[in-house]
Design goal:
Blueprint (H helix, E strand, L loop, with lengths): L9 E10 L4 H9 L4 E11 L2 E10 L3 H17 L3 E6 L5 H5 L1 E8 L4 H13 L3 E9 L4 E8 L3 H15 L2 E6 L9 E4 L10 H9 L2 H12 L5 H10 L7 H9 L6 H10 L3 E9 H10 L4 E10 L2 E7 L5 H14 L7 E5 L5 H6 L2 E5 L3 H6 L2 E3 L7 H4 L4 H10 L12
Parallel strand pairs: 9-10, 9-13, 10-11, 13-14, 14-15
Antiparallel strand pairs: 1-3, 1-4, 2-3, 5-7, 5-8, 6-7, 11-12
Helix pairs in contact: 1-2, 4-5, 6-9, 7-8, 9-11
Length: 412
Amino acid sequence: MTENPGTKGRTLLITLSGNDRPGVTRGLFSTLAQHPVEVLDVEQLVVRSRLVLAVLVQVSGGEPEMSATRTAVRHVAADLDMDVETVPGAAEDDERRHNRIHVTMMGAPLLPDAVANVAGEIASRGGNIDRIRRIANYPVTAIVFEGSGVSVEELRRPLATTAAAHGADIAVQEAGLDRRGQYLVVMDVDSTFIQNEVIDLLADEAHVMPQVADITERAMAGELDFEESLRARAALLAGLPITALDRVRDRISLTPGARTLCRTLHRLGYRVALVSGGFTEVIAPLATELGVSDIRANTLEVKDGLLTGQVIGPIIDRLGKRTALEEIAREHDIPARRTIAIGDGANDVDMLAAAGLGIAFNAKAAARAAADTSLNQPYLDSVLYLIGVTREEIETADAREGLETPAPPVRP
């Protein structure tokens, strides 16, 4: 609640609380209308049929007018069978007014100890929690702390440590206009947007899975860089009929929530892009199906209906993914601060670090270290909660289009 320092007169903060019912807000303001007051601020919250209504007013005149206003408010509270508190209003300091944050916290389940520790970290750094609200109850429980008086930089690292200790996921972001407007959301594909590794599916079709696995292991040990390992694995696919790509596409499993995420982002007017070290021939049809027009991936050479084992064109590696994010953002005039990157591996590190919000999704250590936040839930649409979209809003939008939002999983 904020008092305008330029106003004259005495301020009064009125807080009504009790069982919610129709007519509470009208009753209070109808009573206030009979007194020399000006409304400065209002906030109302209903939780499980319990209402809290806080109103900051400026009372003109002296003590008789203030006393009469307080008495009238007490009478209306008694008529409504509600509790009331009236105290002098206080102005909010400049730091709290201009230094606002959103902390999104998720868990399945979300436990009280985790919430207590997050609140403690905010308070220990001089921050104030102005409001807490739930934005989802499945497939994860997600809540948002709206706070002030502490910076994003002060909170991100300690809250990440707290989240890891309590099995929760946390994202810290600045509040303000940058949470509105168009975003670019760029996602890795293998083990992020889909649950598979495309090169492994292709290797299985070509019956060279052991050889491909050996190259992958050497790359992870640092013996080969990404481009060397990609070309070496692709060479093993030489002679594979192009019809095998259709079988591979049929075997792909989307990560739970991927469809909901794309559908909702498109409704919001966001740009969605897929950036992959995998192969365009497999990814492009999937992107088209989900309405994703921007993709960057590697291209397999095909001659006479067979894969040649060669990769043609620029290689999309670690640097290539970052470059793709930056190029797509420029193409659509989206500033870097409104870009979101989602990935899971070392190949995504540069992209995660360059984005306005880097999200490590069920990621390896290198990606978690580079990202601004980590999601360790298996549901990709949990990303929506980080940009302020609630589960109820998703379901309502789906219902309007005659779609069915996926049912929540059964919890043990």
